[in-house]
Structures are given as structure tokens and as C-alpha cells.
UniProtKB/TrEMBL annotation:
Pfam families: DUF2798. InterPro entries: DUF2798. This is DUF2798 domain-containing protein. The chain crosses the membrane at residues 9-29, 49-73, 85-106, 126-149. It comes from the Bacteria. Keywords: Membrane, Transmembrane, Transmembrane helix. It comes from Butyricicoccus pullicaecorum 1.2.
Length: 160
């Protein structure tokens, strides 16, 4: 886990890249009914704006909220590092799924011009995104990004 604000920034850049890319591919694949090269291309084309939006939401709002909930209600100071990681990651996924599901619904409505269905599309997106995002974060992205982050930036190499 990051030890200071600069490490948090670098870690967030990497984690957000991983999660947004995967979830973009997943959501486009859901729309197209399967995975193909065209799906990956479309996901990649929509990725930059989604990434910037997700990163800003994460950095300026969600991470503070998630850590506040985790340390205020779910964790004790003597909680294990593993419990802290799982709890904070889970607390990050919930608001990010809500926000990014709305983003995806808005993007879909923008392309179709059917803004009247945005609420129903958002509510439809939430469970589909949640059942992919939480396990992906806890089982694949989280461990992979933490490993890559610490290999690239050993403790103390990014000064506070």
C-alpha cells in the first residue's frame, strides 16, 4: 500500500488504468454480446475520457470517502494489513461502480440520443458492473497492481 501522498498518486494512476481499461472492455462486450477485436477497439477509443473522469472521481472524492468509511466504521487501528487492504478496496469499489455506471449510462444515452432512459440504464448497469468490479479488484487488479507498484517503486523511493 502507498505510504505517502506521492505514492498514492502513482498507485492511483496505475490502479485506475487497470480497472477502467478492464471495465471498459467488459461493458462494451456486454453491449455487443461477446468479446471480439472490435469490442477491444471500441473500449480503447472510449478509454481516455473514461480514465480521466474515473481518476478525478477517485482522487478528489471517492478515496477520501472510502478511507473515511473504512477507518471510521470498519477498521480498528490494530487491524491487519490484509484486512485494511480488502476493506479499503471494497469501500472504493462501491462508489466507483455507482459513479462509473452513471457515466456509462450517460455515454450510452449520448450515442443513442435517448436521454429519457438514463435512470433505467444506470440502474441496469450497477449490478452488472458490481459483480465484475469487486472480484476483479480483490482477486486480480489489486494484487497485481500492488506487486507491480512495489517492484517499480520500493518503499522509500518516492519521497513524501
Amino acid at each position: 500500500m502507498p505510504q505517502n501522498k506521492r505514492e498514492s498518486l502513482v498507485y492511483s494512476v496505475i490502479m485506475c488504468f487497470c480497472m477502467v481499461l478492464w471495465m471498459s472492455i467488459y461493458n462494451v462486450a456486454l453491449q455487443h454480446g461477446g468479446l471480439s477485436l472490435e469490442v477491444v477497439q471500441q473500449a480503447w477509443l472510449g478509454f481516455p475520457i473514461a480514465y480521466i473522469f474515473a481518476f478525478c472521481c477517485d482522487w478528489f472524492f471517492v478515496s477520501k470517502l472510502a478511507k473515511g468509511v473504512a477507518f471510521g466504521f470498519l477498521l480498528r487501528p490494530d487491524s491487519s494489513v490484509r484486512r485494511k487492504v480488502i476493506t479499503i478496496s471494497s469501500c472504493m469499489v462501491v462508489p466507483m461502480v455507482l459513479i462509473m455506471s452513471l457515466y456509462g449510462a450517460g455515454e450510452g444515452c449520448f450515442h443513442t440520443g435517448m436521454w429519457s432512459g438514463i435512470l433505467m440504464q444506470w440502474l441496469h448497469n450497477i449490478p452488472f458492473n458490481f459483480i465484475m468490479a469487486l472480484p476483479f479488484q480483490l482477486i486480480i487488479a489489486g494484487p497485481l497492481v500492488r506487486f507491480v507498484f512495489r517492484k517499480a517503486f520500493p518503499v522509500g523511493t518516492i519521497a513524501a
